[in-house]
């Protein structure tokens, strides 16, 4: 048995030594096509959510993944949230449900970090999907703290 | 090796029977396939072999075709790229796999129906007519139509794997027509023959779709296409109303008659 090391979500990890070689030359174009993006600020009925493939992304994901914009955000609508720190998350469930029923979104992909508390975001999406009268494909992608994809599955 | 990469796998197995056993080692069951026209070079992509497995498999096949010779094998082009660690069927493919369960329950009844075949009495003929109604209304109109009218439109219909699926569907329809003709002619042997043929065809066909076609399509389709498929399948379900419930009730009624109570997965 290992000694208790505290919350994995807050545990200090230093990976400065990893290879930081640039893989692309020049600027990477932003693929963000909307504003706002924070879950408390967005309206689920905003035009860019209508019929869209939506990313519900934990706040830390875009910082961890080097290729977030071209590989995941391109062509999609987005909202971000932190299931550990954000308050009034019942509003999130209602907004996700409204995406499904009112905005008629095409798919929902939930991107979370590997830390256990982040799984709460997927739980919110599942809760909304269960109560929604209209079903949409729901995918879960879990990202490691160095940006690697740890799992990708239909939820 | 290049000349064989562009040949149909069935022809290669015929010329080099040992290739069949090599493919079996990787759960690539080409031998029982009714068509077998997939090209050797496409087998790698369709079955999503890892680069390591690809190298070993192709090396073993080259060893059979060119014994004792050193052969250069080009790396096969992959049309479909697997998502990183993506597991399970996408929701629309899962829906089709789930629909197969009811079809497999009908297929499992066929040996019992054949053993008790009676084309003379009304109850005996009724069982055949009910089975044909299931095949035409549920397996074909409800399920295969989803594949032909929606799913396969997202694929290159010139690919051999897609042609094979269409051909299986057509062969199934031909067996159903022959069963009905046999019934009209009171030809018990013909009804028996085509029921058996339908059972064999569908068993292999469903395996082919569950294990090869759907995972392969899942690797090819974008998430946008997956969402579109899911919506279109739901629309089709709405059009078909209570079709699934109606035919599940039929199977539930027939299973005890043929003492088939174990669940078919």
Explain what this protein looks like in three dimensions.
The complex is a heterodimer of chains A (155) and B (265). Chain A is an alpha/beta fold. Chain A has a domain at 47-154: Rossmann fold (3-Layer(aba) Sandwich). Chain A has four helices and five strands, in the order E-H-H-E-H-E-H-E-E. Chain A has helices spanning 61-64, 68-73, 90-101, 119-131, and strands at residues 53-58, 77-81, 107-113, 138-143, 149-154. A five-stranded mixed beta sheet of chain A has the order 2-1-3-4-5. In chain A, helix 3 packs across helix 4. The longest helix of chain A is centred in the last third of the chain and has 13 residues, at 119-131. Chain A starts with 52 loop residues before the first strand and ends with a strand. The model of chain A has no long low-confidence stretch (mean pLDDT 92). Chain B is an all-alpha fold and 265 residues long. Chain B has two domains: 2-65, SP0561-like (Orthogonal Bundle); 91-257, nmb1532 protein domain like (Four Helix Bundle (Hemerythrin (Met), subunit A), Up-down Bundle). In chain B, helix 6 (91-115) runs antiparallel to helix 7 (122-150) and helix 7 (122-150) packs antiparallel against helix 11 (243-257). The longest helix of chain B has 33 residues, at 188-220. Mean pLDDT of chain B is 87; it is low at 81-85.
Strand content of chain B: under 5%
**Rg over C-alpha atoms of chain A, rounded to the nearest angstrom:** 16 Å
State the secondary-structure class of chain B. mainly alpha
Number of β-strand runs of chain A: 5
What is the highest CATH level, the class of the largest domain in chain B? Mainly Alpha
**What's the CATH architecture name of the largest domain in chain B?**
Up-down Bundle
The CATH topology of the largest domain in chain B turns out to be: Four Helix Bundle (Hemerythrin (Met), subunit A)
């Amino acid at each position: 048995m290992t000694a208790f090391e505290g919350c994995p979500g807050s545990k200090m990890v230093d990976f400065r030594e990893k290879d930081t070689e640039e893989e692309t030359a020049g600027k990477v174009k932003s693929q963000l096509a909307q504003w706002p993006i924070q879950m408390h600020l967005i309206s689920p009925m905003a035009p860019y959510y209508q019929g869209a493939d939506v990313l519900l992304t934990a706040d830390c994901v875009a910082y961890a993944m080097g290729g977030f914009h071209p590989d995941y955000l391109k062509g999609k609508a987005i909202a971000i949230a932190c299931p550990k720190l954000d308050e009034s998350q019942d509003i999130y469930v209602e907004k996700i449900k409204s995406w499904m029923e009112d905005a008629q979104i095409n798919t929902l992909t939930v991107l979370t970090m590997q830390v256990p508390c982040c799984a709460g975001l997927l739980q919110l999406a599942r809760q909304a999907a269960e109560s929604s009268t209209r079903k949409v494909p729901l995918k879960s992608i879990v990202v490691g703290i160095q940006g690697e994809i740890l799992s990708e599955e239909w939820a | 090796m290049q000349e064989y990469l562009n040949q149909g796998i069935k022809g290669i197995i015929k010329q080099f029977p040992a290739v069949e056993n090599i493919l079996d080692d990787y759960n690539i069951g080409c031998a029982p396939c009714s068509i077998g026209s997939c090209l050797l070079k496409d087998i790698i992509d369709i079955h999503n072999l890892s680069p390591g497995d690809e190298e070993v498999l192709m090396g073993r096949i080259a060893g059979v075709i060119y014994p004792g010779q050193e052969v250069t094998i080009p790396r096969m082009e992959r049309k479909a790229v697997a998502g990183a660690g993506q597991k399970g069927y996408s929701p629309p493919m899962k829906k089709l796999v789930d629909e197969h369960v009811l079809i497999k329950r009908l297929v499992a009844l066929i040996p019992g129906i054949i053993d008790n075949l009676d084309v003379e009495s009304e109850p005996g003929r009724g069982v055949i007519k009910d089975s044909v109604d299931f095949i035409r209304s549920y397996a074909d109109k409800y399920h295969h139509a989803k594949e032909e009218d929606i799913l396969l439109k997202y694929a290159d219909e010139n690919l051999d794997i897609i042609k094979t699926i269409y051909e299986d569907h057509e062969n199934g329809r031909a067996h159903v027509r022959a069963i009905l003709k046999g019934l009209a002619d009171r030809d018990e042997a013909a009804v028996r023959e085509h029921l058996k043929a339908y059972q064999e065809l569908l068993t292999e066909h469903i395996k082919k779709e569950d294990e090869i076609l759907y995972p392969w399509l899942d690797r090819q389709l974008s998430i946008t296409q997956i969402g579109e498929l899911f919506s279109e399948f739901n629309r089709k379900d709405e059009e078909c109303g209570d079709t699934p419930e109606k035919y599940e009730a039929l199977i539930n009624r027939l299973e005890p008659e043929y003492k088939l109570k174990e669940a078919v997965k």
